[in-house]
Specification:
2 domains; 7-stranded mixed sheet; 6-stranded antiparallel sheet
Length: 284
């Protein structure tokens, strides 16, 4: 299979004991160990840690579902084609009632620099497609009173996820979709779903992301890294903050993924003149 040429899945996480954690699970390949830890009461939020080889240590906060620490997986994939595989860590963050939408926090650890790029996606499919090594990242949203499942394809290069030329795919949730998705949920043994297959049906519409009709020119003055990227922007003499920032590429008419925070976000964005709409910044 072509997929096996670019994808190496790590062993499933196993429960383990870590002194600072009330619950933890780890997976190990070679000299590298990746763990998910819920700290002891009164300490900081749950987190992912990457240790090895040698003295390397990386960590970041994640969310948990009912205290589960086994609900993450790790894949080694050469996303940028430099023969130095990236480590992709997918951690379940939220699971809704009813439709059972699963939110995943993805972290891509660069194979050359160890820089970490963060994104959020829904109904993640562990999607690494063929020699292009692209990722289809999807999200659910309410549009005009209907639930719509939208997928966008990205290519990882130089520590960032860039939109490809593939069209945005949108599919409205209807009884047929509900039946297909429920069958996929029941068949999945790792909580992932085949988003690409679910968005490859005759009812899927292809297009782009329309820019909002009202846009204001602003300058990015600073960034805050918290649960999601936030931006301080200036328009004239007015300085304001955009929480839960969503970025877009105006030329390609593509939104970047939910929760997108590349390693070099400060160098990429601070000082840039961009266009602002409610909750969004569009790069020219």
């Amino acid at each position: 299979m072509l997929l096996a040429l670019v994808l190496a899945a790590w062993p499933a996480p196993q429960a383990t004991t870590i002194a600072q954690c009330s619950a933890s699970a780890c997976t190990t390949t070679g000299e590298v160990r990746v763990c998910k830890c819920i700290p002891n009461r009164g300490e900081k939020r749950a987190g992912i840690t990457v240790d090895g080889p040698r003295e390397r240590h990386l960590e970041w906060d994640v969310r948990t579902v009912l205290g589960d620490v086994n609900d993450f997986f790790v894949d080694s994939v050469d996303l940028d084609g430099d023969d130095k595989p990236e480590t992709v860590i997918s951690s379940r963050a939220v699971e809704s009632n009813g439709v059972m939408i699963r939110t995943w926090e993805l972290a891509i650890v660069d194979g050359s620099t160890d820089g970490v790029t963060h994104v959020v996606t829904h109904d993640w499919g562990r999607d690494f497609l063929g020699p292009k090594r692209t990722l289809l990242l999807a999200e659910w949203a309410n549009e005009a009173g209907r639930m719509v499942f939208t997928g966008r394809e990205y290519r990882y290069e130089k520590g960032r996820l860039e939109p490809t030329d593939e069209p945005v795919r949108r599919r409205t949730y209807d009884p047929t979709f509900e039946t297909e998705r429920l069958a996929a949920i029941n068949a999945s043994d790792d909580r992932t779903l085949p988003a690409r297959a679910l968005l490859s049906t005759p009812s899927t519409k292809k297009g782009a992301d329309a820019l909002p009709s009202k846009l204001t020119t602003v300058v990015v003055k600073g960034l805050i890294r918290d649960d999601q990227l936030q931006a301080h922007v200036q328009a004239g003499d007015e300085l304001s903050t955009i929480p839960e920032l969503r970025l877009g590429d105006a030329k390609k008419k593509r939104l970047y993924p939910l929760g997108y925070a590349p390693t070099d976000a400060e160098d990429w964005l601070v000082g840039k003149t961009v266009r602002r709409s409610e909750g969004q910044l569009w790069l020219n």
